Amino acid sequence: MKMTPMIETFVMHFGEMGSRWGFNRTVGQMYALLVITKDPISANQIAEALSISRGNVSMGLKELQSWQLIQLQHKPADRKDYFQTNGSIWDMANRVFEERRKREMDPTLSLLRDILLDTPANEQEQHAQDKLKEVHDLLEGITKWSSELQRLSPEKLDTLMKLGSGVGKVLDMKDKLLKRSNE
Amino acid sequence: MKMTPMIETFVMHFGEMGSRWGFNRTVGQMYALLVITKDPISANQIAEALSISRGNVSMGLKELQSWQLIQLQHKPADRKDYFQTNGSIWDMANRVFEERRKREMDPTLSLLRDILLDTPANEQEQHAQDKLKEVHDLLEGITKWSSELQRLSPEKLDTLMKLGSGVGKVLDMKDKLLKRSNE
DNA sequence: CTGAAGTTTCAGTAATTATTGAAACTTTAG
DNA sequence: CTAAAGTTTCAATAATTACTGAAACTTCAG
User: Fold this and answer.
1) Structurally, how many domains does chain B consist of?
2) Exposed / middle / buried, residue A20 (Cβ in 10 Å: 0-12, 13-18, 19+)
3) Measured from the CB, is A59 under 7 Å from any atom of strand D?
4) In this predicted complex, what is the ipTM?
5) Are residues A15 and A77 both part of a single domain?
6) Are residues B72 and B109 located together in one domain of the fold?
7) Which H/E stretch holds residue A24?
8) Predicted TM-score (pTM) of this structure
9) Based on the domain organization, do B15 and B77 belong to the same domain?
10) Which of A8, A114, A153, B125 has the most beta carbons within 10 angstroms of its beta carbon?
11) CA B180 from centroid of its chain's CA atoms
12) Residue A24, CA: closest nucleotide via C1'?
């Protein structure tokens, strides 16, 4: 597994971005390598290509599997494990969004729900609770909406994305349509 | 500035989540404190309430200002700087999305554009480029779409969010409407 | 059943990132 | 203009997070 300069550039960059995307550098590199490699590759090949320790690769693969971003493959007459990316690029994006929502929103949402059950002790706490309610509603809105979006078929999602600012127009049409059907 | 247990719980939690949201612990705590505090407060009050160093507060305030999440206020006959949160909760969410897009997508998008200009040297690189194109298109799609969404008025955004899975239905209606107007 | 090949775990260490606090700088009341 | 009050910077240090590599474990061909 030698990487061409082009591939190396991409893999290294993905590593650097990894931490911003919610996983660490080596996990990012590993995933990038799997994305651009056609055939399934073994943990040893990954370790060799990226010059990282075998143990680290094993940990990283476990994490990528838990995110359901990669899949285990077996070759006939070979008991080694081979890996390849799982699903389309769209699936990948969905998984990443989902996982990040779990880490970044769910814990806060749950804490806010608890706090909002308390009775405010004074004016200061009353004001604080009002603000917290706003934050709560925002997070809940985003959470619900994003899970609705994930439920849409890829085609509809694609339509929606391509619509861009046209979304505004469609919303206007919706109002007209509803009015018409009520008449 | 003493914090009640309720407020402290929230502030500390926001600190812990901070790193997942793109800023560090103390910046998260500071922002949380500013969100739930009604009147503008000074840097010293923040340092005292959170038991963090004055220098750290100064850095954090600078960062929050660069995100446009807080605003400087002056009190008459007082040359101290006071701070308070800037804009609605919605504005806050927009700023955070915007800032994260800059950090998390723009650099990758720009790298991918560059790589895609290269001529693939062999079959392996050809396959890699095909994959990179997919990633590029996805990121570009998300980027464009999210900036379109930000351009929508808060009311329309709200409608869109409340629509939830109804989005699918509206898309169907759109098709019908277009058909009808073509007839 | 044995051992060779492969995989996983984890304690120790390295690398990175956040925080402090003291010194330098800025502002303005008097 | 001076000095007191406030603010900012940044080198040193602490805290956190990632990575290595050796040892323990697992699997299966022969």
Assistant:
1) 2
2) middle
3) yes
4) 0.87
5) yes
6) no
7) none
8) 0.88
9) yes
10) B125
11) 40
12) D18
